[in-house]
Amino acid sequence: MDTVFLNGAFLPVAAARISPLDRGFLFADAVYEVIPVYGSRLFLWTPHYARLERSLAALDLKNPYRESDWHRLLAHLIEVNGGGDLSVYLEVTRGTEPVRDHRIPADLAPTVFALTQPALPPDPALEAQGMTVVLRPDFRWQRCDIKSTALLANVLLRESAREVGAGEALLVRDGCVLEGTSSNVLALHGNTVSSPPDGPLLLAGVTRDLVLELAEQSGFRTRRRTLTADDLGTAHEVWLTSTRRILAPVTRIEGRPVGSGRPGPAYQRIRAAFQKRLQAFLEAPPPSA
Ligand code: PDD
Asked: Annotated catalytic, 147?
């Protein structure tokens, strides 16, 4: 995982250099994506790329590459890093300016950076016992739909969960549970899987969308609706979704068990449906073949 991409070049991470006057460094004036890779191929590329375009547009940043160029350069990065199962992190900043200035200069060349990171190893404790989460007041900004690198609030909130032995903090604003610090939240009541509606206060998760699709195909009803802490308290199952962890069963919220207090049968079904979808992806010939 040693080779990174920076502004058109593939080079060892130790040789990669970015100016301290990069607006990504000075102002977090930057967006990012994390894309899963299975069998050396980008999985769910289309929705991840669509979200990258939305994030860039929200910052009024010009997309530095065409979609086919992005795909080609990331495929090369995956290959030179040995391929297999991993994830790609990519970041586009507004670029380096001559002096620190809040005002956005015209015509800066963006900084484009990408690296690969190993897939998370399976977590038998998570499979067997599920995850403990806590609730925290959401003190992030009001454009959480942008996949911005300004993640200090997410980092501090995640740390406050870790300090009490929890794996994630679910963020609550005006009584609504919106999402985790780096995951989306879904709740099962009876046969219905619910997740909060998209809007400026949460990130539209690609994994969440796939899980909702798989839930429908597996015979569940799905709903986009506001979830309160009480809704989570009465849920039979609660799950978190994210690119790297895929689907995680939540079995304890603020010390209280969710449903049976163990990963539930619906979780097992959706997890199996995901595995099946992945298998079909791995067996399908690559689009260019
Ligand atoms: N985070 N919500 C937030 C705030 C996130 O940061 C993420 C993902 C998600 C889940 O989105 P997706 O299913 O598209 O990965 C929801 C990435 C993985 C990260 O910051 O590393």
From this structure: yes
C-alpha 137: how far from its chain's center? Answer: 20
| Statement: the pTM of the whole predicted model exceeds 0.90 | yes
Catalytic residue, from 48, 94, 147, 271: name it: 147
Residues 137 and 260 grouped into a single domain: yes
3-state helix, strand, coil in the chain (%, to 5): 30, 30, 40
Examine residue 147 and state whether it is found in any structural domain, yes or no. Answer: yes
Tell me the best of 34, 133, 158 to mutate to test the pocket of ligand 1, counting ligand atoms within 8 Å of each CB and taking the most: 34
Last residue of a domain, one of 53, 84, 118: 118
For residue range 233-249, what is the model confidence (pLDDT) as tens digits? Answer: 999 999 999 999 999 99
- Domain of residue 139, CATH code: 3.20.10.10
Query: Which atom from ligand 1 is nearest to the alpha carbon of 203?
Result: 2
Can you say whether residue 22 is alpha, beta or left, with left for phi > 0 and alpha for psi between -120 and 50 degrees?
A: beta
Let me know whether 218 and 79 are in one domain.
Answer: no
Domain extent for 49: 3-118
Query: Cα separations (Å) of 255 from 38, 164, 186, 260, 263?
Result: 35, 11, 19, 13, 16
Span 64-110, pLDDT tens digits: 999 999 999 999 999 999 999 999 999 999 999 999 999 999 989 99
Phi/psi for 127 (5° steps) reads: -65, -40
Pocket of ligand 1 (CB under 6 A): 34, 179, 182-184, 203, 205-208, 241-244
As for how many domains the chain has, the answer is 2
Taking CA atoms only, the protein residue closest to ligand 1 atom 5 is: 182
250 and 154 belong to one structural domain: yes
Q: What distance in angstroms lies between residue 289's CA and the mean position of ligand 1's atoms?
A: 31
Q: Which residue in this structure is represented by tokens 């067997």?
A: 128
Both tokens of residue 59? 């910052």
